Structures are given as C-alpha cells and as structure tokens.
Amino acid sequence: MTDLPLDPARLRAEFPAFAEPSLQGQAFFENAGGSYTSRAVLAKLDHYYRATKVQPYGVYPASQAAGEAMNLSFERIAQALNVSPDWIHFGPSSSANTYVLGKAFGEWLKPGDAVIVTNQDHEANTGAWRKLARMGAEIREWKVDPQTGRLSLTDLDRLLDSKVKLIAAPHCSNISGEINAVAEIAVRARSVGAVTAIDGVSYAPHGLPDLAALGADIYFFSAYKVYGPHQGIMAVRPELAMALPNQGHFFNDEKPRYRLTPAGPDHAQIAAASGIADYLETVAAIAGDGVEGADPFRRAHAAMRAQEIALATPLLDYLSRKNSVRLIGPADPATRAPTIAVGLAEPAAAVATRLARHGIMAGGGHFYAYRLLEAVGIAPTHGVLRLSFVHYTTPEEIQRLIAALDAELP
C-alpha cells in the first residue's frame, strides 16, 4: 500500500475528529454507520447558527443570507451528482425520505401494479415499498443467492413485465458490499415503463456517483455518511417528482422542494451540506493529476475508490484465508465497497466488544439488513461483525485491525 493516490495525513487534516483527544488511539471501522464530519461542513454549520439562525428567504439581510446558503447546497450537491438543482430534496433521514416516497407512490400506483423489491436492501429501501401491498400493489421480491448474497440480473429479468412500475434496489448492500449494476437495472426498468429507486446510502461515502450516467430516477443517501450533517438527501427526476402526489401543504403544490419533504427542514444542516462538495473538491486537489475524471467530483470518486481498493486488499486477503469466519460478499475489492461483514460462530456483538479493547471501533448486529441475513442463513439476532471504512483510513489502521482480529478470533 505504498502507492496510495491520496495522502492520508492531508485527508485527515480535513477532519477535526482526528485531532480530538478522546479519539486518539482509536481506529474507526464503523464508517458505514456514519462517517466523521469534514471541517468544511462544520465551519458552515457553525456560521449558520452564529450569523443566520433566522427564518430564511425573508426580506432582511440575515434571512436573505440564510436562504442563499441553503440555495448553495442545492446547487453544489446537484453539481456533485451531475444533475440540475431541481433534482435535489433534503429530508430528516433516508428512512424518512423513503417513507414519504412510499406514501406518494401509494397514491400514484393503480391496483395491480407491480413493485420489485430486494431482500439485499437495508430496510429503508424495502420496507417502505413492501407496505404498498396494503394499497393493492403486487410486491415481487428479487432474491439474493443464499450462498453469496449476490443479486443476479437474470433473476431480475424473470420478474419483469408490463405490470412493473417500480424497481427498488441498492447501489450496494450495507452487508455484502457488492456494487450492483445500477445502469443496467435502470435500462431494464425503462424497457417495461418502470422507474428506479436506488438506495445509495452504502455507496455514496465512497464517491458520489454521476447520476446522469447511472440513469436512475430516484437516488438517495445519508449526508452524515458522506462527511456531512445528519440529514437524508434524495435526487428525484424532476418530471417524476412533479407527477407524484404532493405530500406537503396544499399551497406548496407548485414548489418542487416542498412536495416530497412535508416536515420543516433543518435549515442549518441544509446550509452546511454544501461543505460536502467543498470537501470532495479538496480530495480531488489532493489527488492531483494522479487520477482521471471530467471534473473534480469524478476525480474525487476515482481517487477514493482507488484508495479504498488498496486498503481493502490485505484485509480481504486475510479474511478469505481465515477458516473461522464467513466473508459475506465478494473477496475482490474492485467489485465491492469496503463495508466488510463476516459471519462468526459466536454472536458478532461480543466480538465487537472485545475488539474495542484493542482500540478498534467496529459493530456487530444485523444493521437493518434483517432480510439479507435471513436469506444467507445467519440469524439476525446473532448478527455479523461489520468492519467498514473509507478513504481516510490508514494502512497502519488496517494492520492494527488484522492484528486485533488475529488475537480475538480462533
């Protein structure tokens, strides 16, 4: 791991958490549950609360500045995703966003229309859609392979016909980690007149995707997992967003930002979200000419993925050789996110507790992928040990993790 495209020291200088005394000596391997927050985001959050904590979009200067800061986040997140700002919606969380979308689709679909869901998903992108059965929708389950946890496009093809109006799938699983072929899923959806809702929560921390290239109609993720504030962000194709029944106040029916986010948004956190884009541009600058990409966001994506593949390789090699663990998902780091889960003989939470004594912050449980664990033959109450990291993790931390695992696992 000597040829990393990103200098870990320069990356970590962008995160105040790495200078926090109480976190010294702790290696963070629970990034899939929420990453550290970047300095750029924290600075904007602090400024908003100090200078513009008023009702935005008013006539006086502080109110106007507050609205401008929020507008900037819509513009910058859209830029990072390669879509126009009218795609972007902020809500309290990804689970809340899909709950609202599920309600809107329930009013939009006709009885007998079919919805395809997977059992690979976090519950946020399967539970909300499964509830549509109560409103007359036919729910079809795209099942994973019980040995690998993989979704097969051939299996998806068997479920498709003209009744299908929605396909909900993850960009990658928060357990198996394999990166799914979203662009191909979107093509298949369009071929039968369906739309796609893609859960990007477990993919986006590893580089915000180019949504124009993916072709998905809905793409959502959690800002707090992409170095930002605790909010959910969803991108919805504007024509679809306006076609879905309004879920907000009736007098806001013509305002795209209000129709799918009925709760009052957290103005300060929206304003701070533009710092996510600022941080990604910093990543691109750190990478320099070492990676290719059409713009800083594509270069940041390429550099982050290359960094994570290099970091994941020794850990996946170690786990693949260890007979006492069952690696969920592929062993090839190029085909997966570095969200790495293993099945163990003993309850996973107990092992995570022991790893904490080594300064390893990891998690054990089902991580809301209850259906996936059942599908691959692991009791959700038993859980898996999840070792998740991002590009700011260091090679030394990977070696510390391997040493701790060697000490605590047979």
Automatic annotation (TrEMBL):
Highest taxon of source: Bacteria
Domain Aminotransferase class V, chain residue ranges per copy: 28-401
Protein name: Aminotransferase class V-fold PLP-dependent enzyme
Database matches in InterPro entries: Aminotrans_V_dom, PyrdxlP-dep_Trfase, PyrdxlP-dep_Trfase_major, PyrdxlP-dep_Trfase_small
Gene3D superfamilies linked to this entry: Aspartate Aminotransferase, domain 1 (3.90.1150.10), Type I PLP-dependent aspartate aminotransferase-like (Major domain) (3.40.640.10)
Keyword Transferase: yes
Any GO molecular function: transaminase activity
Pfam families: Aminotran_5
KW Transferase (keyword) present: yes
Entry keyword set: Aminotransferase, Pyridoxal phosphate, Transferase
